[in-house]
Amino acid sequence: MAKVFIYPATSLILSDMVARFGHTPLSSATAIRERIQTAGLESPPLQITPEEAKKGLKWAAVEVPAGVRGRMSLYGPMIEACEAAIIINDADLAFGCMGCARTNELIKFLVHQKTIPRLELNYPKNEEEGVKFVAAIKRFLTELGATK
Amino acid sequence: MTAYTPTHVGSVTKYIVVESFDITPADLAIRAYEISKGAMIKETCFGLVINGKEEEVDRIVAELRKIDPDHIFVKDRGFPPGDARRCRANLGGARPGYNGLEYEMTIIPYISHGLEVLNNKDEKTVPPPDNPLERPVLDISKLKKLIYAQES
Amino acid sequence: MTRPVRIAQLSCGPEYSGIQHEIDEAARQVGGEIFYPDVALKDIHRDFAKFGLDVKSPDLKLTIARAMALVEGRVEADAVFIATCFRCAEAAIVRNELRRYINEHSRLPVVSYSFTERTTSGTLLTRMEALTTIARRRALLARETQNGLTLGVDSGSATTKAIVMRDDQIIGTGWQPTTEVLKSAHEVIAHALAEAGVTRDEIQAVGTTGYGRFLVGKEIKADLIQEELTVNSKGAVYLANRQHGPATVIDIGGMDNKAISVMDGIPGVFTMGGICAGASGRFLEMTAKRLGVEITELGPLSMKGFGGRVSMNSYCIVFGTQSLVNALAAGSTREDVAAAACHSVAEQVYEQQLQEVDIKEPVIMVGGTSLIEGLVFAMGELLQTKIVVPPYSQYIGAVGSALLASGFIKDD
């Protein structure tokens, strides 16, 4: 089982595909879960404290907005830990955790910097594209399973 | 700042989303209650939210998937079911992630179709989708047309 | 229990900067309740296209759709709080355009704020209080005349002021630098009462404002304890006799600056803040000290000089003072340096604050710094308009408090 970073990290479709075809999706939910299940200082709703924005300095400089750095404190460790990645490039309507375009640009860049198996797609627009989309992901994840 | 004491430590929460003509979230919930050994199950408009020990949740999910594998989708959730911090009733409106899920729900039928087709077809025989990073090569006949349009 | 004021939050980033809790807390402290206008995906598609600002961040698209839901009345709210990350250009454009859009198309009071991970509920409190006041106390803010005998106290960060009013006339004043908050308040009150020739017992209602408003208000049993954004706007349009129609109020204070866009005496959009004391009355005080003149002489001195001859950047009070010293050492005249200091403060307020509100004439300058002619002149030059400085402008908060307090006189 490989740890597969998914983009958008909030995607139901990618999260499902990765788990369905036998791997572990690294998603926003798992990062948020880690925070809300860890004791510390009260900072609802996501239990992301101002400290998180400081931790984000590892991936983005101090002149980068706090929201980017706070988000990077969620995604930075996942990008470092991932062994493969699936990216949907036209995910223009992923809100909340994926709601900041600048963070998203940085995430994609950092994933591209890693020498790991990577699949890039767009969302399917019809049934025919749906078949190609699922087939590509299944192929990618099966091959990943064979090499792991 | 006050100290934060987490609840539901060591548990996982998963969304089970159903997009099907044949089964409803209520059908799924009944089946989940039947096989659950202590996991918390909550029915929602799009499916279920299940919370419990990871092995238990995974076992229920695996069973539920069998009901209609091509039309049931699963993802992790960070918060336990009904958590006030994410609850629509407390926030006045849906959390932003809900609109994202709403968007993917418009794509899900194509995914279901893909899964159905691939039940009887080897995925290796399906041509790859367009690579979004590659700009499409200009078609030679289109290039000719452009050249002639420029000359005339 | 009264219903909480429903403040719609339009934002990008606070949850991820770790400060959402601070926003919720500031609202709660002033009887407000933050909520997110509910929109569906189809609303986002339609409204984002309709608004026409093609931003890339999904949460900003959502924010635009939420703003339109408020303006078009699909979601009800009492006030709007717009918050985006400090230093995000994309969000700053959205924040400004939404603030303008809501202000032009609805009666909802709006405050916009750019936060960092260091933003606390304390920083947001005055802004939230102003929002809830405007939403809850429209009737009180509609007051145009002062009746009876009232006292207003403004416990500011730099100075404490008191005003006694009787039937629309100012009859007593008190002013002194703030040292110990309560002591200063008692002294200015005593002065104002003596000047008016009345006793504390005769006063029918009392109002307090400024940083020390809660402490002083409790001590002197005030009927009205109110933040300075609404009080100062009210005082400004009252003193300038511009109670109807639009106006812009600028208050360069000792610690921070306020820019308020007012309609019929009620604030619509306002900003408060300042990057550094370099853009405040404090910097001008330091300048006066370095030039060896009283702060009251700085204005006349600066009017004799020409600021353009000295390069000065008061973005930071330390560097500002340094360039002041350098300019003097390089042989610049005191007059030119004074003028440059005024220009530098005006410029920073113009760049930092006035971009967040729509400047509508008349522009009224209030607060102690409005007595420094050089500063008023520099601001007028920047805004290309004649600035109105009403009488008693240095007592603005105290006058506003005394005016509004008369709404609390019991009819007996």
Q: What does this protein structure show overall?
A:
- The complex is a heterotrimer of chains A (148), B (152) and C (412).
- Helices cover 50% and strands 13% of the residues of chain A.
- Chain A is built from 6 helices and 5 strands; from the N terminus they run βαβαβααβαβα.
- In chain A, strands 2-1-4-5 form a 4-stranded parallel β-sheet, with helices on both faces.
- In chain A, strand 1, helix 1 (12-20) and strand 2 form a beta-alpha-beta unit.
- The relative contact order of chain A is 0.19.
- The model of chain A has no long low-confidence stretch (mean pLDDT 95).
- Chain B has a single domain (11-125), classed as Alpha-Beta Plaits, CATH 3.30.70.
- A 4-stranded antiparallel β-sheet of chain B has the order 3-4-2-5, with helices on one face.
- Chain C is α/β, with parallel strands linked by helices and 412 residues long.
- Among the domains of chain C are: 5-136, Rossmann fold; 149-229 and 396-408, Nucleotidyltransferase, domain 5 (2-Layer Sandwich).
- Chain C has helices at residues 14-17, 20-29, 41-51, 58-71, 89-105, 121-136, 138-141, 181-196, 213-219, 228-239, 281-291, 295-303, 317-329, 334-352, 373-383, 396-405; strands spanning 5-12, 32-35, 79-85, 110-115, 149-155, 159-166, 169-177, 205-209, 224-225, 246-252, 257-263, 266-273, 363-366, 387-388.
- Chain C is globular, with a radius of gyration of 22 Å.
- Chains in contact: A-B, A-C, B-C.
- Chains A and B meet through helix 1, helix 2, strand 3 and helix 6 of A and strand 1, strand 2, strand 5 and helix 4 of B.
